[in-house]
Amino acid sequence: MGRSFSVGILILSVAAGLLIKTLSTFEGGPHHGIRPISKEAVPVYLTSEMNWLVRMISYIAPLIVPIATMTACPTVVEWEKEKEAEAAMLCMKPARDAVADAPGFVDLSLFDEETIFVARPVSSDPLEVKLFQKRDSPKDTKAPLIVYLHGGGFTVRGSPLTLAARLFAKLLDVDGENSRFMESATWATVYYRLAPENTYPAATEDSLLALNHLVREMGLGRGGIHVVGISAGGTLAMEMTMKSLDLVDTFFVDEPPVPLPTSDEKWSMDSPSFRRYSYSRQVPTTWLEWSLKAYTGLDTVHDIEKDLRLGTIATGVDITGGSMNVSEWVKRSSSASLPKLILVTAKGDPLRDGGLAFKDVYEQVIQAAEAKNSSMSGGVPRIKHFETSSGHVGFYLFEPEVFKNIVTEWYFGIHGAWERKNSISIDS
User: Fold this and answer.
1) The dihedral sign for the CA sequence 316, 319, 325, 331
2) DSSP 179-244
3) What is the DSSP letter of 131?
4) 189: closest CA among 215, 175, 168, 219?
5) Which of the 8 DSSP states describes residue 43?
6) For residue 11, with 0-12 CB atoms within 10 Å meaning exposed, 13-18 middle and 19 or more buried, which class applies?
7) How far apart are CA 266 and CA 423, in angstroms?
8) Comparing C-alpha atoms, which of 237, 189, 171 is closest to residue 414?
9) Helices (H), ranges, 258-399
């Protein structure tokens, strides 16, 4: 009996090992073995720098949110051709629906919700923006404004029930433990246009349009203006902040996809972290590259791509809008203080190195601005960097203490801006 049991355990262990090994390859995962990968790639279960629970759960992530299925869809579509457009939308529908229907983490009845529509200058379709405030909060024209830019590779959109509401709720929790100055804060979620229907810079244009409407037309943000972007939204937050330095007080950039320059003056996803985490499940690397093509209008050419290592397809479009260029920031900066950056990168995330590259850029921006304006030096640190260990955006669920620490750091940046703005108002 004991021997049979031991043999059974051995067989199960071997079978489990083989299954995990198979699932860790392209053939067993969402990559389908269609592209060469770097020799630096490490199977998910061997990435010891990641939270072990996340490593195990990530194997079922493609079944819960099948965004990798979008890689079978075209990246360039002639939308005026009805059948071609219909086929493309049908191809993307399962992934988009799965993300939109993802379970929520916060009861939205805690908030008052309002939907506004902002006219686009070159389109008959208005931009949708959802506004949230704590339910029954007092009216305060000097309250902070937080503009939220969702993730999704510029190609899918999640529900406000997920990370947006979770972030806002956590901010309010921290506020309840401290100054209670955010009771009347407004949280604005921007429903920017998606690719491949709308390529760069459509999402950026929508984000800037929303910010300017909220501030200049509605008069929001007199107690401080803050931008937060998760994943693709983080990339938008970088460019949006750079182009709105006269408005933004803090910006929270969470694990952004930042294509890095290639030797032929193009941009690709290739980096040491992209190569190491090529087997990623939380954010499939094949889908990341597909999204880059869809967002920049780069067509898929299978006969050429089949021999290119994953991550090396390059685009001629800089989706960061120059925000990885120090001089672009410096020429827009003035005597005003640069906004504080809250930056999150993650071990286990293929996008980690792009985020770290932006940190280096912003450090150089601060140095250049301080050299240009000596009154800016010696102040409050303008960068706070957090490194998590739960892969792409995993810390929201799997690292609650880290999540709270990040939000608390951002909260005090928001509070500092609120104090400065209200002090200026009183003095004037």
Assistant:
1) positive
2) T---TT-EEEEEEPPPTTTS-TTHHHHHHHHHHHIIIIIT---TT-EEEEEETHHHHHHHHHHHTT
3) E
4) 168
5) -
6) exposed
7) 46
8) 171
9) 272-276, 285-296, 302-305, 326-332, 352-372, 395-398
Structure tokens at 59: 């194997």
CB-CB contact of 315 with 293 (8 Å) = yes
Instruction: Residue 226: name the closest of 172, 186, 256 by CA.
Output: 186
How many Å apart are CA 353 and CA 350, to the nearest integer?
A: 8
Q: Which residue has the tokens 């951002």?
A: 410
> Considering the entire predicted model, what is its pTM?
0.92
Select, from the ranges 47-51, 96-100, 204-208, 299-303, the one with the highest average predicted confidence (pLDDT): 204-208
* Inter-CA distances, 139 with 136, 247, 277, 398, 424, Å: 9, 22, 47, 35, 20
For 161-200, how does the pLDDT look when each residue is reduced to its tens digit (9 = 90+)? 678 888 999 999 999 998 889 999 999 999 999 999 999 9
The whole-angstrom separation of Cα 97 and Cα 110 is 25
In one-letter notation, the amino acid at residue 40 is: E
Nearest one of 299, 305, 331, 302 to 317, comparing CA atoms: 299
Which residues have CB under 8 Å from 343's CB, separation 6+?
A: 253, 254, 355, 358, 359, 362, 383, 384, 385, 386
Tokens of 192: 């920017």
Region for 282 from its dihedrals, namely left if φ exceeds 0, alpha if ψ lies in -120 to 50, beta otherwise: alpha
